[in-house]
Amino acid sequence: MNIERTRILLEDLEQTLLRFIRKHEITHDEYRCATDHLVATVKAGEGSLLCDVFFEAETTDVDNHGRQGSVEAIEGPFYLPNAPRLEVPFILPQRRDETGDVLFFRGRVTSLDGTPLAGVELDMWQADAAGLYSNIHSNMPDWNLRGRFHSGPDGTFEVQTIVPPPYEIPKSGPTGVVLSSLGRHFFRPAHLHLKLRHPQYGDLTSQVFFDGGDYLHTDVANAVRDGLVAQLVRRHRPNDLAARGLHSPYFEVHFDFILVPRSAEDVRRSA
Fold it and tell me: Model pTM?
């Protein structure tokens, strides 16, 4: 964002907040209560979380306006760069006794005209069965259920992981206070996070939700969109289990991604 756009946005934000103060006759005590709460949010490590819950989905909707290819989703506050690079067969790093049903997440990455894209990096992260994220929450191995892998020559990919659950965002801190005052719940529906990268195509941030899941229509982050929902299919037949070398039922999700050539995406964003 250049200096001129920064100036325009900040001045408009200033005037918007001043109008809000005048409209609602905000007192100094109320103003100080709000600023103290913002400071507490930062001190609690929830600065991004508070903003993400209320505003991030709206910014992705702006980005998706006129967008070709796959719908973009919110990143959320728990992404970390430089996750481990995985080797074939791709399995997200897990504890030996990782709780949760086995999930095979697979699909294909193509360009706008349907051409398969090889070598696309898929950077994936998710919550464990308790709704916790490694490197964020305590008592978890570093990089648990986080990893980077690539699409094959035909654009396809498959990675083994676990089925994530719906989970509550942190509710004992400042963000929870705000949500409680509004009478809202704290749950996000079950989902997978991904970032897709290719040198010749625009980056894509995505989330994959499961059709029929709890909180799908009442996501606390208001981030579920039609183009981000996939079918979670349970496999239990003996031949399916044998083909995977498993003894218990497992789940599959198929989800395809369409990337936009970098030049076309750059033109759209600059328009």
Answer: 0.90
